[in-house]
Amino acid sequence: MATSYDVIVIGGGPAGYHAAIRAAQLGLNTAIIEKWLNEAGEPAYGGTCLNVGCIPSKALLEASHKFVEARDHFDEIGIKIGSIKADVPAMIRKKEEVVGNLTKGVAGLLKSNGVTTYEGKARLGAGREVTFTAHDGKIEDLTAEHVIIATGSVPVEIPPCPLTDDLIVDSTGALAFTSVPQKLGVIGAGIIGLELGSVWSRLGSEVVLLEALEDFLPPADQQIAKEAAKQFKKQGMDVRLGARVTGTEIKGKKVTVSYTDAEGEKTEVFDKIIVAVGRRPYTEELLSGDSGVTLDERGFIYVNDYCLTDAPGVYAVGDVVRGPMLAHKGMEEGVMVAERIAGHQPVVNYDLVPSVIYTHPEIAWVGQTEQALKSAGEKYEVGSFPMAASGRAMASNDTAGLFKVIADSETDRVLGIHIIGAHASEIIAEAVIAMEFGASAEDLGLTMFAHPTLSEGLHEAALSVSGHAIHVANRKKKK
Ligand code: FAD
Ligand code: NAD
Questions:
Q1: Where are the alpha helices (DSSP H) in 170-215?
Q2: pTM higher than 0.85 for the full model?
Q3: Residue 151 and residue 175 share a domain
């Protein structure tokens, strides 16, 4: 007889483990099935995010940023340290230690919340029957009142750049280089390309990013994207737009990449290539023909606003469903679904999912961009404030970037907040809170911000919507 649960979660990434823990907290008899094996062949929770995504990339971004600060900027603030050297294997070991601690932490959280764990593969059949295949091949039949699919995503591969063991790699391979490639090619100047390109550029690689689109960072506000392009160029990253990769050829330990751009056909030789052209939903061997779950034309599991699939009692959350492929979006969906199963009525506010690119300067935004509002014919006012005018930024010797607040012309309600600058990833939380509460630019202007902080830039940008900023020349007529 099949073992029965109130809830079975398939996938233990951020979306799945949040769903499982919240369901267990709400008193539901919950199991989670996760198939991930780490480098050592041990089962690991946390999915892409903890194992090969958010956390390891941030560990390397932080280490490489500190290295650049010490190498290039300490003497500007009166710290003399002589010559310094990056110990890449030590950085990788530290990154792995952080990953190990966090993935074990998630296993501990699941256990302490009373979630039953199954380590191996799940396949969903009709009527919420789940076939579990353990890593040793043992099969077990399970069943549940509710199933939550959280099987995530995997990197997109493109025919001109077939992956190899160590020369042409995806993001996972790029998080594990043990030495600095002299010349690094990155296919795709999106979020992963910019973050991982930054890591290796800071550690000494000559980095060339080949981006198929003509525009740089189209999802970001284009004023911010322009500033970002300027900063990355200053750092030595060579972003080539409108560059379509047509092929790769490996000769010895080098890769020749062929691509076409506005000037015609070109080739360039690299020591390593990172392919970072997006991710796709992962549902391989997950659904039996009669599961009742359907996919959309792009391979995402089809769900409604509450993450319910076409099969009764079966939900799907995280990267495997529509919406931005971000850990925090999946976490909120996981919690929403668990609470709805328990009879609560929460919703996810998809209009206010913050986006962050953890380069230096960091780029963060929430809400609408100026170009989107313009093309929708909306009437809006813009306030901005340069990081260079912030006392705290000056004291920190880190003045690149700006704040931008966009508000509705008539109601003054904040429609979008965009930041490029140090700690933008932290400051954006203030913007999300303000917008969740429907703040106007005036509300932000009337709020007291501690001095001296970088957040004051958000205050000044909000004040500047109506021409009241104190620390910049106001071009607008004061209201
Ligand atoms: P995943 O994390 O992909 O987890 C899915 C899990 O399901 C996996 O563990 C998989 O083994 C398991 N699984 C799949 N099929 C089965 C099956 N049949 N049976 C059992 N288990 C199964 N997002 C951010 O918000 N911030 C960042 O800074 C950030 N940085 C990133 C950096 C990199 C290099 C990458 C690659 C991604 C990054 N992301 C970031 C994206 C983030 O990792 C994903 O959005 C997030 O992990 C999605 O969570 P998920 O739970 O939906 O899926
Ligand atoms: P992306 O969509 O951000 O960028 C991919 C880029 O590759 C795009 O600019 C696209 O135009 C370009 N591209 C596509 N095909 C190409 C080709 N053949 N040649 C050249 N360029 C090509 O995707 P990504 O950087 O791979 O990241 C995947 C997802 O992972 C992101 O969308 C994001 O959701 C998530 N992620 C988030 C973070 C974060 O939150 N900080 C960090 C890393 C990854």
A1: 171-174, 191-202
A2: yes
A3: no
